[in-house]
Amino acid sequence: MSDFIKHECAVTLLRLRRNPDYFLRKYGTPLYGYHKLALMLEKQHNRGQDGAGIAGISLNPVPGRPCYQLEKSARTMALADVLETIHGRQQNVAPGEEMPFGGELLLGHLRYGTYGGRGVESCHPFVRESARLNRTLLLAGNFNLTNTAHLMEILRRSGHHPAGTQDGYLLLQLLGHYWEEELRIVPSAFDPAAVLKRTLAEADGAFTLCGITGDGNAFAIRDAAGIRPGFFYFNDEVAVVASERPAIQAAFDCTSSEVSELPPGELLWIDSSGKIQFLPCLEARPKRSCVFERIYFSRGNDADIHRERKALGRELAKTLLKMGGDDWENTFYSYIPNTARICFHGMLEELCAHAAQQRSTVRFGEIAVKDAKFRTFIADAHARKEFFMHVYDVTYGLLRPGSDTLVVVDDSIVRGNTMRNAILPILDRLSPRRIIIASSAPPIRYPDCYGIDMASLKELVAFEAVIDLIEEAGKHDLLLECYENARSQLTDPKAELSNCVAPIYETFSEDQLSEAIARRLRPEGLRAELKIVYQSCEGLHRCCPEHRGDWYFTGNYPTPGGIRAVNQALVNFVEAVDKRAYQL
Questions:
Q1: Are 229 and 293 in contact (CB under 8 A)?
Q2: Which one of 48, 119, 336, 442 is least enclosed by Cβ atoms within 10 Å?
């Protein structure tokens, strides 16, 4: 992706199913579990950048000491900071003392802050302490909730005084409240699924949650629509949960078929003896797994994701061919590094098959090269913009100036800032006659509220473009009507919810929107003709049939909180602009 947007968080849970002496004898280290957890976190590092945390619990902890160990960091290179701190503690352990993080239960998290604070207090795992082991809870997850104010109110009504506002902290406090209630009623018949069901019934959003308790239990659960990803792997030595399948495969050298998807809405419960069971928990809902996970967030070394991204490229190739993209002699194909590479491979296979039928060859190569080492700070705005262009280098001599069409694949276009300010200006230096940017994803029309930092309509180039179309068509009344509907729904808790932004997009055709986006993305002084080509939603569904969470593109949100969030985004947008323009 050319645009920088914030990724999903990543969570990892590991339970050793044998005692530490077994691993010391077999693998020669009392830190087998910790090393595996650290490896899985590192393999998911692209999903978390501004915070990291690792917690550990040993079965039968020594009285007089905390039953858990915890290290968190919100510093630059947070994961490295946590691992270095833990390594220092392990190196300085006194003879006879327990090795730090050498216990049977480990919980790790990588945070990519999307909303709220950025300090260490916002980093997972969150802890709810108690003098009783079975009431001490640690929680971490990949999630974002849309109704934290509601959770805060429930806690206040029950006599609590929440000391934070982070959704993870509030969710843990609510879980702990119901957990203790359940233990007080019938301790011998404690039902973790009932407690999780009661807690999560109050939460609107998407989540993959993992937790451990002071007395040695562990659990994991995904939202009932399966929006956020989660995978598990078991053998007679370990039980593991992680946000990405390849991380588990890398750590335990297992095949794709041995790593399974966490069933949405079911509770994975691992008791203190190591027994594993799945318990019915949340009411079943249509599966709406996030498709952006497949397009961009998850690593492409997952076999299914690799196939899907290639399929997206083949689908794009068909669109380009219908546009007359078989002028093999005068067309050069390339991609924006690095996540669009797999999609480009699929597109290239489709193009080459068609070219072979015409006894022609496809011209292709790596035109844009990302300079990963390019880091600088310049105070002067004009000079900073000039340097920003050079985040990408280009390969000279592959294009014929003035005659070639350059087709460049990107996996998606969100804000368009990097495309406008860096990629297009530097591609234009090669003097192509025309530049076609082909996006493997449809236009991103709507904000996300389930974990990705895309909460503002103003930050989406597609929305900026549709506002341009409204201005050109003089349809200010349409925007005002949608705004009034959104504000009405937000102030009336009994109102029937509907996406109030959708009618704005429905007024204009796909071609009109694409052309308006191209005008928005066109930098000043660009000499080449510019065209933007998008994947269709139908094509996206054909390529990723098991991932129908497409609200970014269609506005079809899977929870009521999503609809409220998009309506709030519209209200925020209209009220932030010149109110006189819309007669507010």
A1: yes
A2: 119
Residue type present at position 358: Q
Q: How far apart are CA 386 and CA 524, in angstroms?
A: 13
Q: Taking a C-beta distance cutoff of 8 angstroms, is the pair 141, 126 a contact?
A: no
DSSP one-letter code for 508: S
334/312 Cα distance (integer angstroms) = 15
> Which residues make up the CATH 3.60.20.10 domain(s) of the chain?
10-287
Q: Please give the class, per CATH, of domain 10-287.
A: alpha beta
Q: How many residues does the chain have?
A: 584
| Strand-pair partners of 182 | none
Quote the CA–CA distance of 306 and 445 in Å, as a whole number: 25
Interatomic CA distance for residues 479 and 579, integer angstroms = 12
d(CA 13, CA 44): 13
| pLDDT (tens digit per residue) in 204-224 | 999 999 999 999 999 999 999
Asked if residue 257 has pLDDT above 80, the reply is yes
Would you state the pLDDT for residue 583? Answer: 52
Q: What is the pTM (predicted TM-score) of this model? A: 0.88
**Residue limits of CATH 3.40.50.2020 in the chain:** 295-472+509-557
Q: Could you give the C-alpha distances from 404 to 160, 336, 436, 519, in angstroms and in order?
A: 67, 18, 11, 21
d(CA 473, CA 552): 25
Topology annotation, domain 295-472+509-557: Rossmann fold (3.40.50)
Flag whether pLDDT at 6 surpasses 50. Answer: no
CA distances from 246 to 54, 233, 341, 524 (A): 20, 11, 18, 43
Give the alpha-carbon dihedral of 299, 300, 302, 303, to 10 degrees: 170
pLDDT in tens, 33-79: 999 999 999 998 875 567 999 999 999 888 888 999 999 999 888 99
| Predicted pLDDT at 3 | 46
